């Protein structure tokens, strides 16, 4: 991890109504489902077991991330601020479409991140290189340990940068909702429900 980048906890927002049916969101938004709210509660419990003294909290300005932060982070860090650079990757003409109807994303499942480089093919979309540039810009502005609440693809790119890995590994950095990623010293650890009763769970 580049010198000067701080310790970070990264959360993806909880499941949304569009997530549940496989609909592409990008710059659009939909409400958290009951499962999504439960995932945010689990993330909050995980963070409650972490020493967040001196941490800042940053959140995407999109509604689903703000709703997750309200459950998982508020009350655990003094202030939650938003930054537009943490929004989800823009997917252009794919916004609102069902994932299964997009051949370029065949096999790109949220759970395991297979085929996510297909996001570069979205007509009118932002592209992964542009997303990486704004994520890097965000991190360069930070020197204090942070909790970040963001989105599926943006989370992956932030964590690639924090571990010094290339965009070509976006399918292997890990994903999922209801977990918390801890990054320090270039090492990623994923905290899940098992972390509530002991030390950090499994590494990826």
Automatic annotation (TrEMBL):
One CC-aspect GO term: cytoplasm
CDD domains: HP_PGM_like
One function term, GO molecular function aspect: phosphatase activity
Binding site for substrate: 12-19, 64
Active site annotation, chain numbering: 13, 88
PANTHER family listed in its UniProt record: ADENOSYLCOBALAMIN_ALPHA-RIBAZOLE PHOSPHATASE, BROAD-SPECIFICITY PHOSPHATASE YOR283W-RELATED
Name of protein: Probable phosphoglycerate mutase
Species this chain originates from: Roseovarius azorensis
